[in-house]
Amino acid sequence: MGGYIANFTVYTMAMLGLICFALVIYKKFLNGAANNKSQFLGIEECINLAPRKNLYVIRAGHERFLIASDADKTNLISKLDDNSKPNRHEKQPGVDELPVIVDFPQKEKPIIKEMLKKINEI
Predict the structure, then answer these.
(1) Contact between 55 and 47 (Cβ < 8 Å)
(2) How far is CA 51 from CA 54, 56, 58, in A?
């Protein structure tokens, strides 16, 4: 009787292993077929503005569109022209090459000067 239980356990484990292996192979092929990327339609850029609020640059063929997406709706903002597309081969400016703003006029703060005068008088 013990031999039958051992044989049953071994064969049951072997069948469960074979079923799990078949499921892994099936999912691998199923995901591979579903992951075919479209050559016509694609998302070029995505910016998260807030939770569940995004801006997308969508490519459809040779055209590009700016789209806003919210939890409730999706809106077409504009069609982008080809000049707005950054050249991927062109070197993007680094932090050191950004313009620096240095000539802000300094406003005098009479309140602080008055407070300093009062402190000096004491």
Answers:
(1) yes
(2) 8, 14, 20
pTM for this one? Answer: 0.41
User: Using one digit for the tens of pLDDT, what is the confidence trace for 85-121?
Assistant: 555 555 655 666 655 555 555 566 677 777 778 888 8
- Residue 34 CA to residue 44 CA, distance in Å, equals 20
CB 32 within 8 A of CB 14: no
* Three-state secondary structure call for residue 39: coil
Q: Which residues on neighbouring strands pair with residue 50, listed in sequence order?
A: 53
Nearest residue to 62 (alpha-carbon basis) of 78, 87, 81: 81
